[in-house]
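User: Please fill in residues for this 243-position structure.
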């Protein structure tokens, strides 16, 4: 059995996020932190789309004619912007509740997105020009198998964008003990021991046949809020390619 065919969904993790489905689109609800993260992620994603696919940075739909897969899509916070950028989007999540909320919101927004409640390992669609995976790899079992499955869904010459928390004393203090206890993130969202350092994550992707071409931190500052930074102590986002 290949690495890409081994199921990596953790049922307890899927159930935890499924409980958040009802207010996923509420910027003040249980997914408030994701609403704050999303614009930062999108700036990074758009920059690498323009570079990788040689797009005009002023173009409204740089992904026109291209396919995208959003893995661990939740209720569609990233899938919808990818669709607006012109991509034919497939988006998958382990929680059926999230997929139902995503489908309802996309219908209200007039967006055609192929939402599916299934793991990446069994997805028959693809390969895709762009694969995104935001804050997911730290929630799966067997991250090496998960990385292999992501790589398997990427077309030759395709682009992967992945973000995840770093395993540092700062992330334990601020993301787990701080944000969760203060109610900024639902309790039980994170298991710090499952966080990956940038070096560990890059090694997994390299073993899966990808080349990491860039990584940046997502930091927080009192005057800046969440922003892209050289500081990777809390969170980081990276770009990788399949050649």
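Assistant: Residues filled in for all 243 positions:
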């Amino acid at each position: 059995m290949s690495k890409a065919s081994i199921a990596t969904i953790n049922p307890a993790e899927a159930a935890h996020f499924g409980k958040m489905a009802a207010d996923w689109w509420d910027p003040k609800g249980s997914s408030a932190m994701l609403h704050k993260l999303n614009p930062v992620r999108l700036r990074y994603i758009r920059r690498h789309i323009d570079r990788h696919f040689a797009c005009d940075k002023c173009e409204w739909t740089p992904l026109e004619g291209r396919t995208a897969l959003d893995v661990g899509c939740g209720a569609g916070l990233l899938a919808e912007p990818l669709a607006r950028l012109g991509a034919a989007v497939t988006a998958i999540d382990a929680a059926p509740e999230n997929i139902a909320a995503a489908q309802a919101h996309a219908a209200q927004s007039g967006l055609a997105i192929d939402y599916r409640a299934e793991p990446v390992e069994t997805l028959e669609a693809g390969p895709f020009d762009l694969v995104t995976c935001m804050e997911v790899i730290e929630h799966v079992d067997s991250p090496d198998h998960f990385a292999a499955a992501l790589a398997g869904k990427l077309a030759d010459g395709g682009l992967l964008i992945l973000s995840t928390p770093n395993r540092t004393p700062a992330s334990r203090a601020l993301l787990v003990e701080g944000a969760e206890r203060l109610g900024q993130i639902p309790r039980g969202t994170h298991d710090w021991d499952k966080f990956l350092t940038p070096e560990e994550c890059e090694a997994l992707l390299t073993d899966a046949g990808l080349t990491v071409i860039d990584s940046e931190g997502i930091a927080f500052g009192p005057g800046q809020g969440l922003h892209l930074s050289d500081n990777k102590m809390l969170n980081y986002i990276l770009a990788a390619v399949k050649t």
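For context: Helices lie at 11-18, 32-52, 79-84, 96-109, 143-152, 169-179, 198-207.
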